[in-house]
Known about the structure:
By secondary structure, this protein is an alpha/beta fold. The protein has a single domain, classed as Rossmann fold (3-Layer(aba) Sandwich). 37% of the residues lie in helices and 27% in strands. The chain is built from ten helices and twelve strands. Bound molecules: adenosine-5'-triphosphate and magnesium ion. Magnesium ion is lined by residues 54-55.
Amino acid sequence: MTGSLLRVENLVVEFRGGGAFALRRETVTAVKDVSFHIGAGDAYGLVGESGSGKTTTGRCVLGLQAPTSGSITLGTDDVGELRKRDPQLLHQRIQAVFQNPIASLNPAMTVARILAEPLRRLVGMKDPAAARTRGEELLDAVRLPTDVLDRRPTELSGGMAQRVSIARALASSPSLIVLDEAVSALDVATQAQVINLLADLRDETGVSYLFIGHDLAVVRHLCDRIGVMSQGALVEEGTADQVCHSPQDDYTRRLLDAVPVPDPTVKRVRHGHTTR
Length: 276
Ligand SMILES: Nc1ncnc2c1ncn2[C@@H]1O[C@H](COP(=O)(O)OP(=O)(O)OP(=O)(O)O)[C@@H](O)[C@H]1O
Ligand SMILES: [Mg+2]
């Protein structure tokens, strides 16, 4: 496919065992020949049971894990090469949001400093007053009041802290954000609010998402396309409707069986518009 922002081709990741039982080295193949593309402004969902290889795939996309074989291309750049050549440019272009919002924010820093850090390092915004103004804009973008700038992560609810993590990810105006179980630690009502926020932000900024989760019911509310992983392999791929309404793979059917039957009258978020 041409025009894709991110292309993951034939990704394989093997972990060689070692440690205390170094004589019995077992190789774990965490990702087996996985390929998918994400278009600019698209949200791609990766779902699957625990240990199916989702985080490992996300870490490869972020350049944190080297593939054993296969390639990951962002625009025209190989992610591994870009990481070696210009790690700052890679960080500017691909950002991450993780599961535990409070643990992923430095507890010693105010939100103002947390947001100023990527502005200084990745955008070259060195003037503290300019960074504070931009910090206010970023908080506004994630629907948080300005006074949050002077609080520390431990003074925020989980939902507010995750909004700060999203604001920090947006600071460098990335083209892609990898969200790994980004709403899994939040209660159901807060999950829905953050999912709606992510849908709005995508419309407003044109950012793309790789949204990793184990809960198909959550992932399908945000994502245009969904890939289903099982034991390291991508066993099914298609539009959110195809995967949820006419799954081709037995494993996807079992995953759907674990999810409440969708109510067709429930409104769904798609490109910021609600459809029935
Ligand atoms: N650094 C590592 N060294 C050895 N094995 C690893 C390493 N990281 C992951 N694995 C193994 O790779 C497989 C895939 O793990 P991964 O974390 O990618 O799964 P996941 O789909 O994200 O699971 P979860 O839903 O629990 O987060 C698992 O068998 C895991 O034990
Ligand atoms: Mg994981």
